[in-house]
Amino acid sequence: MDHRLRQIADYFLACKDRKDVDPTALGSALLPHIYVLRVERLPPQPLKLRVSLTGTSLDTAFGRSLNGQFLESFLHGPRAVDVVRGFHHCADTREPVWMRQVARVAGRLPRYVEGVAIYLEPGYIYGGLVMGEFADEIDVAPFERISLQRRETIDS
């Protein structure tokens, strides 16, 4: 896992709910990679995830702000279904996850989008995303999803 995502995941995994989040605690180097999704369940409609906040590096990568849009409406590509399924899994089970999608384009090194998603009450997913290019041609799966473990806290 990218070291920035590890820091972001560790911070959000230590939060019990949304009230515990203090963005200033993450520091200016991590804030550009943060996102917040609001879980919306409006029966009979299916689960939807509305973007509440994206950091500046995400806005730059997507070429625009995604605030207010549904995650399901702008993700595209060969693994978009897997990525949306991973976010929905997090929303439905409250299980924190790490995901990585790898894209291969002829004549270029593989590119990746890697992220963490942590559910926090009442009905939000907090996380971080980083994007980049591998330094060498490597053999990795086009999509991976792994559960993250919440760390137990001991009250003194």
Key features of this structure:
single chain; 156 residues; alpha+beta; Beta-Lactamase; 6-stranded antiparallel sheet; 24% helix
What helical percentage do the residues reach? 10-25%
Mean pLDDT: 89
SSE sequence, one letter per element: HEEHHHEEEE
Radius of gyration: 16 Å
CATH architecture heading: 2-Layer Sandwich
In terms of DSSP E residues, the strand content is 25-35%
Sheet with the most strands: spatial strand order: 2-1-5-4-3-6
User: Mind describing the biggest β-sheet?
Assistant: 6 strands, antiparallel
Overall morphology: globular
N/C terminus separation: 31 Å
- Which structural class do the helices and strands define? alpha+beta
* CATH fold label: Beta-Lactamase
Number of domains: 1
Count of separate DSSP helical elements: 4
What ranges have pLDDT less than 50 throughout 5 or more consecutive residues? none
List how many beta strands DSSP finds: 6
Q: Assign the CATH class.
A: Alpha Beta
Task: Describe what is shown at a glance.
The protein is α+β, with helices and mostly antiparallel strands and 156 residues long.
Give your account of this protein's structure.
The structure is a single chain. With 156 residues, the chain is an alpha+beta fold. The protein has a single domain, classed as Beta-Lactamase. It contains four helices and six strands; from the N terminus they run αββαααββββ. It has helices at residues 3-14, 56-62, 71-74, 80-93, and strands spanning 34-40, 48-54, 97-103, 111-120, 124-133, 143-147. The protein has a six-stranded antiparallel beta sheet with strand order 2-1-5-4-3-6, sandwiched between helices. A hairpin with a 7-residue loop joins β3 (97-103) and β4 (111-120). The radius of gyration is 16 Å and the shape is globular.
